[in-house]
Amino acid sequence: MAASADGRLALRVTVNGTLHELTIPGSRLLIDLLRDDLGLTGTKKGCAIGVCGACSVLVDGELMSACLLLALAVQGRSVTTVEGLAAPDGSLSALQAAFIAHGGFQCGICTPGQLVAATALLAHQPDPDEAEVRAWMTGNLCRCTGYLGIVASIRAAVIGEGPAAGAGE
Amino acid sequence: MRPFSYVPAASLEEAVGVLARHGDEAHLLAGGTSFVLLLQQGLVDPGVVVGLSSVPGLNTIERDGAGQLRIGAMATLGRIEGDPLVRDALPCLSEVVGRVATVRIRNQATIGGNLAHADPAQDPPPILLALDAVVEAIGPSGRRTIPLDSFFVDVFETALAPGEILTAVRVAAPSPAIRFATVKFLPRTVDDFATVTVAVRIDPSPDGRVADLRIALGAVAPVPLRAVAAENAIRGHVPDEALLAGAAELARDAVDPFDDVRGSADYKREMTRVWTLRALRRALAPSERVA
Amino acid sequence: MTQGRAGPAGSGPGGSHIPALDVPEDRVDGVAKVTGAARFAADRAMPGMLWARFLASPMPHAAIRSVDAGRARTMPGVRAVLTGEDARDLYFGRRLLDRPVIAWDRVRFVGDRLAAVAAETPEQAEAALATIAVDLEALEPVLDAEASLAAGAPILHEHPERYAFLDGKRPPTGHPNIQGGFTIEGDAADLEAVFAAAPHVFTHTYRTPRQHHGYLEPHATLVWIDDGDLVHVVTTNKAPFRLRAQMAASLGLAAERIVVETGYIGGDFGGKGYSIDEYACYLLARATGRPVKAVTPYAEEIGQVNVRHAAVMRLRTAVDADGRLLAHSADILLDGGAYASAKPLAHLAVAGAADTLAPYRVPHVRIVARTVYTNTVPAGHMRAPGQVQTNFAGESHLDEIARALGQDPLAFRLRNAARPGEVGATGARFREARGAPLLEVVRREMEWGSSLPAGRGRGVALGLHHVGAGRLPLTLLIHHDGRLEITTGLPEQGGGVHTVIRRVMAAAAVPESIVAVRQVATSGTPPDPGVGGSWATHLASRATAALAAGFLAWLDERLPGALPAAPAGATLRDGRVVDAADGSTLAALDTVLARLVPRDAPVELSTVYEGGHREGEDDDFDFAACAVEVEVDRETGAFAIRDALLVVDAGTIINPVAHRGQAEGGFVFGLGGAVMEGLVLDGGVVTNLSLADARLPTPGDVPPLRLVVLPTDVGPGAFGAKAIGEAVNPSVAPAVANAIADAVGARLRELPLSAEDLLRAMHRA
Fold it and tell me: What average pLDDT score do residues C15-44 get?
């Protein structure tokens, strides 16, 4: 890796399947790279210290906090954000659809992180029980739902349930 | 935070060289979970950051020739939690690292960063003290090993010399007869730093006495520490309730906690007594699963 | 024990049956929020945008000797540095403008601004702050509410007469350190005589801490001034028109020169009614000619923006030999912090500050509620403002009285709960008093009275919240292509108000598929009050119902012209114009609209709904009861909630998924305040300034929760809708405190309830 004259460094990173080559300062955080340099504002900055989970992203499939990663730490790796969860044709993933149907969000600020975390959970354990869902999702705070709608949404996506009972149309 | 340059080290030798060249200006970066917080709070202000994630092989977990488990410094807590070698030889360690913070943090935080950061509230040090772990380090004057017992010096301060890098932690796999009990006491919420952590290791002797033991405590002093007086009170004796209760009181008297949102110093002292006693009972309970 | 949703929400009979509302809602904001496309204020950027950062006072109370920003102005990337000298006499606030935009003579809390910097990057702005030299002379601080009223206490605001007061005249306060307050008196003349003659009188004091809202979206704003000198403000504020009025008053601008635009709001809970950075960003935009953006760092969010009032509450109650409440007096002292700036109501207190025994019948009452100045972070509105404090006090107090009298706490509440036709302790006339039926559900569901193992206990608490009222305009645009578009100034902060609008249209026979709800800036719609105060569903549903009726009447009048062959009695059903007699389709709606609406000139219908409460008439409330079973570890004081029950009084439910989410979310919100939340101050400085230390509940902290809904159709909203958002959270903390007392006999009178305090209380007991 070569540093340019002003101390900026070259970064190659794949985000949601697209390769980006940029030069950035060494101190750039991944969260700011995503939001400010790449315009991917779906990833949110909340507490900025790795507690709240609003900035959850996948790095080579592993769940991480974009606010705690230097952008250069993902050199050559593949990052997935909430913008990369739906299919290329825009159709929603089972988790995304379930979050709408089962009260998985209210204000929506934590929702990108919740969905990224839940996507990582199902990749890691395709059929989690409720206790496993709660344990895994403990790192993603939500101030609106009280979590029960989120847990119900994830369970519904696992068992392939459609909209909440009563949606009989 | 001022702008800094970033050096992704290709080898430990390169990292040692950069640290030597830049002195106090340089800072090591492992998983980053504590480093970025320190940056934001202005507690570190480096000109050069040396990344260790690019050093090949630094996250390896292996059994060495002597039967010891050697965990590379850059192994993440999540990796240690799920590693088959660790699960097999040190289930107590797997269990403890699995209780650290959240999945996301465990995927980023490394065991080397955890120990070198020397935050007394961290969960892994007490169980590693109970396991009599040793850390390996490399520096300008070569490689050496440091027993964990003498590694922690003060809050955020270790026995590592300037320019020295922690490269691995080594643990002898305990015999199946040895019993462990670990506690992380969280009275407020399931995701928090502990009010107190306790790790107890009991080496029983066939005659019912405790041949040897270690009691290690976290979050209740400037450094993770062993309750030596409590260990001495039990070692060589057949344990009964009065002996354990007396030892737990000695553990309480050994700690030096500070007041914070997780409890007053008085409360943490009392919780040290209660949870040390409970951990001792659990480790000695005949029905208790080994480790 | 199962975790989480323990079965479906139970429900009693009642409520209007509207078939279109049986279907779970499809949220208007759904796809945007699950794909990351939803834009929040912090997501916005402008070409040439600068970043603002602010220098906060390190002292709780000090005179400013000098602020030297000379070096900061020369720092790389810095385009403007403003100090108090550049903002003299500029104050801001929601009602009383008593907080300086940038302090010039005095700082009154750790967080008062001493300088504002605009630079090309946030890091450059931050670096410049560090070079500003500040010379402060420490003054004696007032650190708590009781000290504020002590003899000889420093006076924090020496010239309150200089502060503007929006919409009227500030009521007199009697003491310069009092921000405001109010008194409730019901038959107070005989009060002391009743106390003197009563067989039992109980006095207890309760305390609650400052609390942060805990929304995960920090305040953010982006301000620019366009070529026509219009001031554009993108903001997290949930009441855009009110912010416009506040900015106009503060900055001396005409309101029409300000355009306030709100995107989605990432959690409100009352905290997003108050904005701070907008004012200084305007000054920086004016100084630089560039757009200026500010996002509050989370530590400043916790310690410097606005918090729930800390409270000290002294309650005194007289009871007869049978356990009937005879008289009640309460002194509610609320710590307002350094400024009253964050409070919107004319009395500059919080509405729930007198609700100690609100659901109960008490003949003689005197409740004095006061907010006072201290040198701490200003206090404002937070979900059920005042009630979280007074419900904890009142419901704990009732439990203590019942236990002292040897009576069952649930039976004691039932004996005193206001029945239909009776007036509550604060003088509220309930259109429908529902305390007793809710408590009966608690009795049944909790198997109240059955024995529990040692170390376990049950507790209950009852609360109520007023269903908000007000005035709301809405506009409908009928398009040539058959789309109906409703424009509103109401922001979507998660409560689902945009979905309420679309659902009410659907209930009036206009299918959701052709209805769009679009939020517009203040320049594009008549003024509205924003969201909050549990009024959104009431106002939006009624305004939409009126708009739907207006649309149907408009259509009805024009149908003969559009469909000359149509029989009389043609009507709209499922998006088609049908023959009312046999239901046969006459035409698709879009065909009809294409004939009635010119291609480029949509027809505009508008309505203004006004729903208020008149003095002396019945008023609308949501009642809620919470009951829990706890288990206490006697050696550590740690307690766990093993079972929780929520019984809520609901009007006709428009968004069933969101309604349940509000109830569950309200419970967990209340749980956080009950057992873990609370700012810790040391010498006026907040010390738990991160979410690592100021913890919020996680999924692993939520106990098994059962929800029972008791519907009715007498709410003020469309079809009898009521509210839910603020009804639930206050009762959780007293229910837990009461269960702990039941389990181990020790009483905690201060929030949050902690293991350590309980261990100490058990040792005392």
Answer: 93
Whether C756 and B267 lie within 8 Å, measured CB to CB: yes
- Global pTM reads 0.97
- pLDDT of C14 > 70? The answer is no
Domain end: A39, A66, A84, which one? A84
Q: How confident is the model at residue B43 (pLDDT cuts 50, 70, 90)?
A: confident
Which chain B residues contact residue A27 at CB under 8 A? 1-4, 6, 39, 49
Q: Which residue of A has its CA nearest to B37?
A: A49
Best residue in A65, A134, A144, A153 for a mutation probing chain C (most C CBs within 10 Å): A144
Alpha-carbon distance B113 to nearest alpha carbon in chain A (angstroms): 14
Instruction: Give Cα separations from C336 to C149, C341, C350 (angstroms).
Output: 12, 9, 10
C454 inside 8 A of chain A by CB: no
Half-sphere exposure for C460 (CA within 13 Å, toward CB): 26
User: In chain C, what are the domains?
Assistant: 1-12+417-421+432-467+620-765 (3.30.365.10), 469-611 (3.30.365.10)
Residues A25 and A47 in one domain: yes
Range of the domain at A20: 8-84
Alpha helices in C97-208 (DSSP H): 122-129, 145-148, 191-197
| A58 and A111, same domain (yes or no) | no
In C69-162, beta strands by DSSP E:
78-83, 91-92, 99-100, 106-107, 113-119, 133-138
Same domain as A122, residue A148: yes
Give C516-519 contacts, CB < 8 A, sequence gap 24+: C516/C483, C516/C484, C516/C485, C516/C486, C517/C28, C517/C485, C517/C486, C517/C488, C518/C485, C518/C486, C518/C487, C518/C488, C519/C262, C519/C487, C519/C488, C519/C489, C519/C490, C519/C491, C519/C492
- Contact state of C668 with A85 under an 8 Å Cβ cutoff: no
Per-residue pLDDT band at C613 (split at 50, 70, 90): confident
Q: Are B216 and B230 in contact (CB under 8 A)?
A: no
Residue of A nearest to B104 (CA): A64
Q: Spell out the residues 6+ positions from residue C173 whose beta carbon is closer than 8 angstroms to its own.
A: C179, C180, C181
> Min CA distance, A155 vs chain C (Å)?
12
Nearest CA in chain B to C130: B1
Q: Do B8 and A49 touch (CB under 8 A)?
A: no
ipTM of the complex: 0.96
Work out how many CB contacts closer than 8 A connect A with B: 84
Determine contact: C640 vs chain B, CB below 8 A: no
Checking DSSP bridges between strand C621-632 and strand C639-650, what pairing results, if any?
Answer: antiparallel
Q: Which two tokens stand for residue B278?
A: 């409970």
Decide which of A52, A84, A116 is a domain's last residue.
Answer: A84
**Which chain C residue's Cα is nearest to B277?**
C635
The whole-angstrom separation of Cα C463 and Cα C395 is: 8
The tens digit of pLDDT for each residue in B79-134 reads 999 999 999 999 999 999 999 999 999 999 999 999 999 999 999 999 999 999 99
The answer to whether the Cβ–Cβ distance between A7 and B190 falls below 8 Å is no
| Strands B196-204 and B179-185, sheet pairing | antiparallel
A106 close to C495: Cβ distance less than 8 angstroms: yes
Separation in Å, CA A62 to CA A65, B84, C135: 10, 19, 49
* Chain A residues with CB-CB distance to C294 below 8 A: none
Which of the other chains make 3 or more beta carbon contacts under 8 angstroms with chain B? A, C
Question: Which one, of B100, B56, B92, lies nearest residue B76 by Cα?
Answer: B100
Within this chain, do residues A113 and A144 fall inside the same structural domain, yes or no?
yes
**Which domain CATH number covers A25?**
3.10.20.30
Residue A136 maps to a domain? yes
Sheet strands (E) in C1-140: 10-11, 50-56, 62-68, 78-83, 91-92, 99-100, 106-107, 113-119, 133-138
